[in-house]
Amino acid sequence: MMEWIKTTIVPHFNFWIYVVIMMLGLWAAIGKNNLIKKLIGLSIFQTAILLLYVSMGVKEGASIPIVDETMGEAAVDFMAQGGGAAGATAFPINPDLFANPLPHVLMLTAIVVGVATLGVALALCQVIFRDFGTLEEPEILNQIQTIQDDV
Amino acid sequence: MSEHLPVIVVLAPLFGAVIVGFFGTRDRHLCFPIALTALALSFVCSIGVVHHVATVGAWDYFVGGWESPHGVGIQLRADGVNSLLLLAIAVVALLALVYSIRQDGEKDAEKSPFFYVLFLLLCVGLFGITITGDAFNVYVLIEITALTSYGLVAIGSSRRSRVAAFQYLVIGTVGASFYLIGVGYLYLAVGSLNMADIRTILAANPEIANSRIIGTALVFILLGVWTKMGLFPLHGWLPNAYSYCPSGSANLMAPLVTKVSVYVMIRILFGVFGLGVITENPGWSDLVVLIAVGSIVAGSVMALTQREIKKMLCCLIVAEVGYMVGGTWLGDAGRWGLTGSMYHILADAMMTSCLFLAAGVFAKQFGATRLEHLSGLFRRSPWAAGAFTLGGLAMIGVPPMCGFFSKFYLIRGAIDSGHWLYIVALLGSSLVNAILFFRIFEIAYFGEVPESSESSEGGCPTRGRHAAWRTAPLLVAAALTLLLGIFNRPVIDLIRGTVVENIDIVSMQE
Questions:
Q1: In this structure, is residue B358 part of a structural domain?
Q2: pLDDT per residue as tens digits for the range B452-508
Q3: What's the confidence (pLDDT) of residue A38?
Q4: Residue B233, preceding peptide bond in cis (omega within 30° of 0)
Q5: Which of B60, B192, B360, B366 could form a disulfide with B197 if both were Cys (CB 3.0 to 4.6 A apart)?
Q6: CB-CB under 8 Å, A116 with B70
């Protein structure tokens, strides 16, 4: 059992945790009755995915992916002009030394999307509270059934 | 200029939205002309893209000139599959825009500047999803589409629209997040986000392509897009969201958002994982076709129980989504099922657009939201009723209309691959459509004109003057469903060109 934990869970700790957090969030988003609690669950769910992506790019002992003077002036100049496929052969870079920046950059976009979603959702909650006087889903659904067809 | 057409299609409505946001809020009369200009520009550019694809071939465009070796540039790709969808989006959006032209004296929320901003941003999302060649880019654009849809649903005057928008938001966000997880696994396995790049890597490395992580990625992506397209049993949000939103929004969202999600599924299967996924895993593809059959049956049965026009049409969308998903997963050797699905995306966009525009006209002019309100409609508004009839006939699949040809190709694919249950469901659903629409035609043609119909429109004194603005797009949409059917040959040829060409590439690589 301990052996299994050591070989399966410990090296991929982030990925296990991400699944647990994601499921917690999904459960709250689906199972909770209060709309705000649903939103909290939804945010947790989205944030867990950020953890997945961030974990992908991280390497042990790796640094931020910036080409600096230690690699020589020529490499810096070359990268300043846009780099390119030729640069990889002219200036070999040891990828183990640098974290993968792409997943992290992607998550900046995903964070913005998450914030925007939360903003829209909170605005909707505000309007729903004004219209129905409650944020409990069963009560709202009860009230809706009494509305005449006003489409 | 002309070499930048693919990106202008997306950018025109984006800048249009910004300009409407700046100037439209000061002078409301500017909203409509700006939005119209932006969409007309997109329309012209998408015609240019279609022309280029038809004469020269697939078009790869790199935004900002960042070409592939970096692996981080965003690629736009237009080919026989998506260039026509771009055109369809532009046409449906233009029709919906003309329908929603702001009329003096009207105080509807759907005519505010914010409506136009959301409308244009939704078009940006739809165009972007269709033309992008980057898997992560699709996620961002799906979320742009989704966020603007929530706004367009909630903008309605009904209290129910807000609750429908909230439910849509929760389910839609979970769906998009599933897609994001799938792309994450794909990136973990392959290390690229460019669709063509991933396809090349997967084709060259069968051990990666058959690994469990790629399977997981596919399942997550499919769950995500199925939620977004409202495939049964993930359709819960769809009927409420599309029937309680204002008709100006429904005219844009109902025909396009689900169809574009279907396109994403086709693009992911076709351009990323490869169609081998379908043909090499018959057990899985049978299961998906079975789910699609469930969607067709469920959508048809739900539609039969509805008495509200828009709700009924929304249930039909669920059934139509089943057609397209099933057709994609048939896996017949000639790829007729896939061809039928792609053609049906276009056909269904036109048919649904026509029917929803008609439902909007009925609701606005006669206050008719339920089937029984439609009695005597042919005498009250012959043009609108005639256009609705054309749309209904297309939905049933009567020969010269576009709905017939998509069903023809879908059934051909199903016969080739031996999915008999799918054929039964398809024909059964056509029969249900016939019952539904002929019931409406009967009420509308033979029903008495209600006595109170004229007096009940006290709130709409300007309708005579502006009715033409609402009916014109409806007539155009009805004509297009007919024309798309009659001239289906060049459309099918263009689609086949891409599909068949890809058959050769895939078989050479594998």
A1: yes
A2: 544 444 444 445 556 677 788 888 888 888 888 888 888 888 888 777 765 544 443
A3: 92
A4: yes
A5: B192
A6: no
Q: What are phi and psi of A34, to 5 degrees?
A: -80, 135
Q: Tell me how far apart the alpha carbons of residues A94 and A125 are, in angstroms, rounded to a whole number.
A: 50
Residue A40 near chain B (CB below 8 Å): no
The 10s digit of each residue's pLDDT in B22-62 is 887 777 777 888 888 899 999 999 998 888 888 887 888 88
In 3-state terms, what secondary structure has residue B77? strand
Residue B119 carries which DSSP code? H
Neighbour-count burial of A70, counting CB atoms closer than 10 A to its CB (0-12 exposed, 13-18 middle, 19+ buried): exposed
Q: Is the pLDDT of residue A119 over 90?
A: yes
- Axis-axis angle for helices B463-486, B82-99 (nearest 10): 160
Given CATH 1.10.300.10, say whether it is the number of domain A2-59+101-146: no
| Tens digit of each residue's pLDDT (9 = 90 or more) over B331-350 | 777 788 888 898 999 999 99
Closest CA to B400 of B323, B478, B493, B481: B481
Please answer yes or no on whether B180 and A103 come within 8 Å at the CB atom: no
Q: Is residue B115 part of a domain?
A: no
Task: Report the chain A residue with the minimal C-alpha distance to residue B69.
Answer: A85
Domain boundaries, chain A: 2-59+101-146
Report the run of H or E that residue B75 belongs to, with start and end: strand B75-78
- Given CB atoms, is A56 within the 8 Å cutoff of chain B? yes
Instruction: Decide if pLDDT at A131 tops 70.
Output: yes
C-beta atoms surrounding B364 within 10 Å = 19
- Nearest chain A residue to B370, by CA: A149
Instruction: Answer whether A113 sits within 8 Å of B177, measured CB to CB.
Output: no
Answer whether residue B387 is part of any domain: yes
Which of B369, B111, B438 is CA-nearest to residue B248? B111
> Which contiguous run of DSSP H or E holds residue B61?
strand B59-62
CB of A103 less than 8 A from some CB of B: yes
Cβ neighbour number for residue B299 with a 10 Å cutoff: 28
Q: Do B160 and A147 touch (CB under 8 A)?
A: yes
Shortest CA distance to B359 belongs to which of B228, B482, B237, B242?
B242
Is the predicted pLDDT of residue B136 greater than 60, yes or no?
A: yes
Cβ atoms B324, B348 nearer than 8 A? yes
Q: How far apart are CA A110 and CA A133, in angstroms?
A: 33
Q: Give me the domain span that covers residue B412.
A: 275-451+467-510
Which phi and psi angles does B210 have, rounded to 5°?
Answer: -95, 5
Q: How many domains does chain B have?
A: 1
Quote the minimal CA–CA distance from B68 to chain A in Å: 9
What's residue A93's pLDDT?
A: 67
